[in-house]
Each structure stands twice: as C-alpha cells, then as structure tokens.
Give the backbone structure.
Amino acid sequence: MTRAGAPLVTGTLFALAAGLMWGLVFIGPLPLPEYPATLQAFGRYVAFGLIALPLAWFDRRRLAQLTRADWVEALKLGLVGNVIYYLLLASAIQRAGGPLPTMIIGTLPVVIAVTSNLRAAGAGARAEARLPWARLLPSLALIAAGIALVNHVELQHLRADPAADLARYALGALLAIGAVACWTWYPIRNAEWLRAHPDRSPRGWATAQGLATLPLAVVGFAGTWVAYAASGNPFAMPFGPRALDYVGLMFAIGLFASWLGTLCWNEASQRLPPTLSGQLIVFETLAALSYAFMLRGRTPELQTLAGVALLVAGVVWAVRMQPQAAAAHPA
C-alpha cells in the first residue's frame, strides 16, 4: 500500500466502525415505545455528556488547546447534529417504524456528497479538493438506485398493511427529512473543523462535543419534566415505568453510538475529504437495516438484498476515486 493510500484505507475503516455504532440509534427507540422522543433524545445525550466527563480528565491537555471559538463550534455541532437531529429521528421512528426513516436517512450519502461538491469552504476552513461530477455521478447513481429499491420494498409492505396509519407514516417521513437536513450540515461542518485543525485530537474533539451537549441535554430533560408536571401528564418522571431498561439503554447508546461513533467518524473525517466521507455514511444505513431485520426476525426480500448490493457497489466505486488537487489559496 502506498503512503498516499493509507489515509484512504484507514479512513474508510473508521467510517465503517462509525456506521456500525450509529446504526444502533435506528432501533434504540423501538424497545421503549411508551417513552416519548424527547426523553429518548435528552436521556441519550445526558448519558453521552456524563460519559464524556471522566474522559475529559484524560483529554484535559487536548481540551485546554481549544479556544472559545472552538467551544462555540462544539456547542453548535452538539445542538444541531446531536440534540435536534435525534429528536427528529426518534420521533420519526416512533411514528413510521425503523425501515422507512432508515431509508430516508439513507439518502444522506447522496445529499452530503452533492452538497459538499457544490459548497464553498467556510471562512478559515481548509479548501477541499473536489471530485469531478463525471467521476462522482456513477457512485451516487448506484447508491441512489440501491436506496430507491429498498424504499420500494418498504412502501409495498406499508400499502399491504390494512392497519397502517398513513398520516402517521407521512409525519414520520417528514420528521426524517428534517433529520436529513440536520445531518447534511453536521458532517460537513465537523469535517471542515477537523481538517482545518489536523494537529488536534479526534478523540478530544468527540469528548468536547459530549461536554458541550451535556448542558443542552440537561436543560431539555429538566424542561420536559417541568412541562409534564405543569400539564398533569401522568408519565412517571424522571425515568419512567421501566427505569432500569431506560437508563441502561440510554447509557449503551450514549457510549457506543454517541461517543465511540463520533470518535470513529472524527478519525475518518480527518483522513477523507467531505465529498467522499459523506458517501461512506451509507455504512450507517446498511448497519441500521441489518439490525432492523434482526429485530424483526426475518430475512430480507430479494429486492432488498439487491438494493443493499447496489449500495455496497456505490461505496466501493466511491473509495476508489481520488479528488482533484485543490487550488492554492493565499493564507
């Protein structure tokens, strides 16, 4: 392997690990259907922040290097990419089940790659190399075709179910589209910061985002508690009717999906241009689909497997491409 190709391979492996971790969030809300999305989202990120607290001690030297502007950036990323994103996603999953929101979120590789290729770098960010559209479009077409094929299968199941609430499913789809908007912004902005600061630790940046998200999650959790008390909602706050299940699930998702997944994604983002790393979010879709079918206890249909094969083919095509050299910019 050439020295130039090493970041591509290691970055792809880190993106795969992040996808395996993040796929857990698509089935996380399903074991606790009686818990509202607000408690699932805020509980997850309270857990993430509490996990980050002891880790911050080990990363204290790296965290001390962060400026006030860096902490503001971590707060923005935590708000949009963590809290708002998961509020929308958990609400979508509770209304439409696992597969439909998974497939809508599965459009992220296409949306992020196109947005990255169109978007100019922000002020102070490193100018990224761009992929020629003629080379980018085949992999995007394969990924889009795979997503469309799996979507077709899920919509057939929906139409065949006489008990399906189409309005509820439609609302779930709209909420999932909102989650796509949040997570189009997050990885591009996060990658810009990491690639503009190649000397900074991806692990320290993951911990910083956890610390920045903690006060947001605590305020959201407390606000939900106050709102329930004021409205006379009978839900048993603070941890609900299945306290051990709830706390255990929140900490499991907080550790694996939030901290470890963010760490792996930061490692990938520091090695890969956003145009390529955006396509590798397809690993999250593949993992989420696998977990959803395991939870259902049934084998995917032939069309679904064909769609997955197209997704994988698109990823393989994408990782073989090299971006054009970025034009030099004055400091």
